Amino acid sequence: MSSSIRLAVIPGDGIGQEVVAEGLKVLAAVLPEGVKLETKEYDLGARRWHATGETLPDAELEQLKEHDAILLGAVGDPSVPSGVLERGLLLKLRFAFDHHVNLRPAKLYPNTASPLASDPVIDFVVVREGTEGPYVGNGGSLRTGTEHEVATEVSLNTAFGIERVVRDAYARAQARPRRKLTLVHKNNVLVHAGHLWKNIFDRVGREYPEVTTDYLHVDAATIFFVTQPERFDVIVTDNLFGDILTDLAAAVTGGIGLAASGNINPSGAFPPMFEPVHGSAPDIAGQAKADPTATVLSVAMLLQHLGYAEEAARIEAAVTADLAERTGPRATHEIGDAIAARVSA
Amino acid sequence: MSSSIRLAVIPGDGIGQEVVAEGLKVLAAVLPEGVKLETKEYDLGARRWHATGETLPDAELEQLKEHDAILLGAVGDPSVPSGVLERGLLLKLRFAFDHHVNLRPAKLYPNTASPLASDPVIDFVVVREGTEGPYVGNGGSLRTGTEHEVATEVSLNTAFGIERVVRDAYARAQARPRRKLTLVHKNNVLVHAGHLWKNIFDRVGREYPEVTTDYLHVDAATIFFVTQPERFDVIVTDNLFGDILTDLAAAVTGGIGLAASGNINPSGAFPPMFEPVHGSAPDIAGQAKADPTATVLSVAMLLQHLGYAEEAARIEAAVTADLAERTGPRATHEIGDAIAARVSA
Ligand SMILES: CC(C)[C@H](C(=O)O)[C@@H](O)C(=O)O
Ligand SMILES: CC(C)[C@H](C(=O)O)[C@@H](O)C(=O)O
């Protein structure tokens, strides 16, 4: 915990701009008097790419390193070819900053309708590996565009990379009341990567005798997400399975409008990045229709990570209260105002 | 349509035995007088592996080729290391018989509780590619068991392999009233494989002007499975995404006890294999608790495929009626008896 926060802000595209404004509003409202907040905005995303062809120039990557944390809204637009901003900006950041812990809580808040009929209690966190697996960008295409094209994608998995994220997940499970950790993979088909994950999971588990462990194939895990989400406490999984499972988790907890995430390098070598799980939603951009709650909760994760646990808890409580009392639809800034008022009260 | 059916039967492990017995009961009941049914049972699965170390010997693979179709119950047991039977038996069969169309209908039957609160209308079919992608078994491990281990899994994708399954999916979409086809992939991250899929999907689509098309990333698709399953008609997707999505589809349509599937090589070069999507469920094996309906519906798919459309429709109708009238829990054979009675009535 420092008495100043140097925050890099990447509003990005579409609703990203709108939700980040509310996130910053709540951040300013919750911070104690003595803490100085310095923000610097970076113009990255579809607009920038159209204007200059750049996604994330090295000079800006260097500047981002000089911050304590990054807050990102959302990036992407249908006018940009699929993959350009994802690989050139979002994934470039995750890999350059070695953000191997991609943290995604899934919590069903009161007065929030889950699409599930069982009215379940959902409160788990997915620790998604962020720097390996099928996301490494190790693919290629031969005879591109012909009827003989062959395209590959290589999933790369290392003992080093798996062990560090598995350790992080065990530590988190140990610190939670239920102390349960589930590994999700597909080790009956992806036998080499899957067995490496399972072996490390079992070995590290011997150091955490109080943590109950479980293994599920990814296909079976999706079934339990809708039939028995209560069974999960902490989940650790590979990059691609984590991507899929956390969108599903967002859906069963009432939608992507509430799902927050953090991309963390626990070594502290590079700044962490916090962002809502949702995308730029160009269809509703500029209409004040976006729910900024996921960004506000991402700000809470950011504060928690920087050591402002009390402030993070205040945001969590404010969001819970705000959701509990909400009735009709509200504009983006109305939601931000309401939460900001609660945290500063 | 032939006037005899040579059927290879692989009951397998756990509840596989029990559900296959009911599937065969219904098959015998529905077949017209003149059709001769010859079945030959193959003892493959966990028991066989424990006894002999064999998963699918070449001699038996050759014999299986001499049949019109294969009916499989379920294979697997916790006593067998993960991957042995999957790669050595199930996937060996899919690859040896080039079962590139893995067909998995998702239908919410009347009087069947979906875990979704919205009481949705669900009636779509997933055309899962069955012989490529991350399932090819092209992986390896270096420095196995050390802290420097590296494990890879290669997803292999060919224009040839994708085009044939995409064509199959368009033809199916064209033949359905809604004529809608959704491609699911992750082409913003797995850019090489994803773009190959997308390019072929778009190109073949120009031959089907009446089919409405759509593209979804796999993570977004899982959201729609629980928030808006009505939006799907036919889905075409890669092997791994299809595995995940069809378990989720089974869950939202009231459970894996009803999900049928077919592994098909439309060229006819090798016999198709039909099987329930569920596993061997050793926890309830031998207790007459398993629901044989998924196997019975797999028998209907088998008949449809062999040209017995009317008989297939009779099974579908019998299952629908049986589900509509069910009240309390019934034993495995009671369900089989009830459906058999309806189809022969
Ligand atoms: C936009 C995309 C690269 C990203 C991912 O696949 O990780 C997103 O879906 C996410 O979950 O953060
Ligand atoms: C058992 C396993 C190899 C198989 C798969 O992953 O395809 C199963 O999950 C399925 O969906 O048929």
TrEMBL record, chains A, B:
Amino-acid positions noted as binding substrate in the UniProt annotation, renumbered to this chain: R94, R104, R128, D219
Alphabetic keyword roster: Amino-acid biosynthesis, Branched-chain amino acid biosynthesis, Cytoplasm, Leucine biosynthesis, Magnesium, Manganese, Metal-binding, NAD, Oxidoreductase
Occurrences of domain Isopropylmalate dehydrogenase-like (ranges): 6-339
Gene3D superfamilies: Isopropylmalate Dehydrogenase (3.40.718.10)
Annotated site (Important for catalysis): Y135, K186
Chief place where the protein resides: cytoplasm
Top-level EC class as recorded in UniProt: oxidoreductase
Cofactor annotation comment: Binds 1 Mg(2+) or Mn(2+) ion per subunit.
EC number of the protein: 1.1.1.85
Highest rank taxon of the organism: Bacteria
Oligomer status and interactors: Homodimer.
Family: Belongs to the isocitrate and isopropylmalate dehydrogenases family. LeuB type 2 subfamily.
Protein name, as recorded: 3-isopropylmalate dehydrogenase
Source organism: Streptomyces thermolineatus
Lineage of origin: Bacteria, Bacillati, Actinomycetota, Actinomycetes, Kitasatosporales
